[in-house]
Amino acid sequence: MKPVDILIVGVGGQGTVLASKILAQVGLDMDVTVKVSEIHGMSQRGGSVVTQVRFGQEVHSPIIQKGHANVILAFEKLEALRWMSYLAADGQMIVNDQELDPMPVIIGAAEYPEGIIDKLQDALNNVTVVNALQLAEKAGNIKAVNVVLLGVLAKELDVPEKVWLKAIEKTVPPKFVEVNKRAFQLGFREAV
Fold this sequence. Notes:
Layout: E1 4-11, H1 16-29, E2 33-40, E3 48-56, E4 69-74, H2 77-83, E5 87-96, H3 103-106, H4 116-123, E6 127-130, H5 132-139, H6 145-156, H7 161-171, H8 177-190
Helix pairs in contact: 1-7, 2-4, 5-6, 5-8, 6-8, 7-8
């Protein structure tokens, strides 16, 4: 497997860290080298959370350089816009069509930017927009947005679905495994 660089971006509370753990488990189960780096910026208060996951036969560093991510998995639109410069020219942006107001917007010091999806589509070659919240609700838990997005990501990677489902079983607390499997499958099969 050639090296794959995936940047996961979102805000605190969206499950970006769990998503990165599931993704790392997928790499381990495929018997390739996995490197993970997490950056938490006031994550418990809704601040940015960024995880860099790299895996393949030879991966030496967990850091993804600007302009080199094969995939950016964005859990929130504004975070997608903030981090789009990290996407490679031939990379894939997968973005959840959801707005979560950052603190400056909440306190009235700024306005949430309009037209983010249009800006992403104008600037990037390959953007997939997903209503992951709706699919997570259909799966049975709105907190499963992260795993819905992993299902969409799975379409882009050459990894069998059963490997993903096994990684979910190994990573997610037992009482949430079934809802997360449903969320993954909805993302994998229904997201456009």
